[in-house]
Amino acid sequence: MFTVRKNEYPSKQTVNLVFRERSINSPSRAIPAFLLFLVFLALFVRFGVQGQLQKMTSAQASLEKVQADLSGLVEYNRDYEAVREQYSQYFNDYLNEDEAVLRDRLDVLTLLEECVMNQADLSSISIQGNICRISITDVP
Fold it and tell me: Whole-prediction pTM value?
């Protein structure tokens, strides 16, 4: 099954000591490798650095434009509260449907003061919705 080999020695009598080393230091390999490196470096600088800087510059320019627009609008709306206060004296657009239907409470209190308080003493006033409940005491 297994065969036993006899000790055989190599039969070659000469040695070839000429060996050609291939390294990156040889000009035939170093120059194309260096040119390839330069191409990759140029692509990286163009798209990785300059492209990002151009995007950042355009974003900053658009930000400055929007900030200028915003400051103009803020300046334009500086007196908004005064205008809104004047407007709300004449229009009730800020009220919802239920609130718009209700009577003004100050008008109701003025009416009570002018008509009822001259005739009798009021012990309590309750206004809920459009219903006013008053408790009158000392009616002559």
Answer: 0.40
